[in-house]
Amino acid sequence: MNNYCDKYAVILDKLEQVIDRFSPVENSAPDFEKHLAFRWERVGENGGRLAPVTHPHLFDLDELVGIDDIRAEVVRNTSQFVNGFPANNVLLWGERGCGKSSLVKGLLKPFGWKGLRIIELKRWDLMSLPLIMTVLREIPKRFILFCDDLSFDEGEGDFRALKTLLDGDIEERPENILIYATSNRRHLMPERMSANSGDLEIHPEEAVGEKLALSDRFGLSLGFYCFDQNEYLAVVRKYASSRGLALPDDELRVKALQWAGLTARRSGRSARQFIDDLEGQLLLKNLSSDCH
């Protein structure tokens, strides 16, 4: 009898594992009133859940210097969206460290109280988009699905699925969802000279067109470029002022340029890292002075 019960328990346990593996969404409903940001977490092979981000990075858009025109376009598009007007999916591409991700995260501060929520998902979660859209379709909020550092390699089929999902397939796309993505690549995929020269392609323009078709699905595509010296210094001065660092401008300028030379970068990220280092040095110096 005991052996029979043990075998029955093992069978039940395996059955529960199979059910969990293919369960589409966890039962606990996300609290969209309490939380502003979420992450999509896969559950099993075909399911997932929206996990709340309890401490979202409420980046201040005013701290983004040198990208005023781009910021204005993204804010305008998002304002249209949260007010229920037509708006576009957004692709922010270009130089790393110039504020692409910060710009998207910074939208929560001005628009979170108006019902905007941001859901972060990874590239490999794109195949879950139909499920995510089904979950969010009837929720009375506005959702940005945020995919950071999006790109595809040659031969990957996911980009074709994303093309369909961006424009919608036979099912009507929810009007309360947009996709905002960032990428270092303008067209999200590698562009090789062989594609233009026609190597192994009878009709190379078709191969090129297929790659361009993905980025074309984003109605708003905005490029970020490396800062020049004046733009870089403007960002440094902005950070220094916001943190109350009392340092003569000439000295701040020399130190900032030295930092840029050492790191071989002039970007918003590099400027913030320089200010973090400088502030730490000044605080440590003050601590040493107080101890003596």
**Main sheet attributes: strand count, strand direction, barrel closure:** 7 strands, mixed
Q: What structural class is derived from the secondary structure elements? A: alpha/beta
Rg for CA atoms? 24 Å
* CATH H-level superfamily of the largest domain: P-loop containing nucleotide triphosphate hydrolases
How much of the sequence lies in strands comes to: 5-15%
Question: In which range does the helix fraction lie?
Answer: 40-55%
- Output the number of helix runs: 11
Strand order of the largest sheet: 2-1-4-5-6-3-7
Overall mean pLDDT stands at: 80
CATH topology of the largest domain, by name, is Rossmann fold
Please write the string of helix (H) and strand (E) elements.
Answer: HEEHEHHEHEHEHHEHHH
Shape: elongated
User: Which stretches are poorly predicted, pLDDT < 50 over at least 5 residues?
Assistant: 18-27
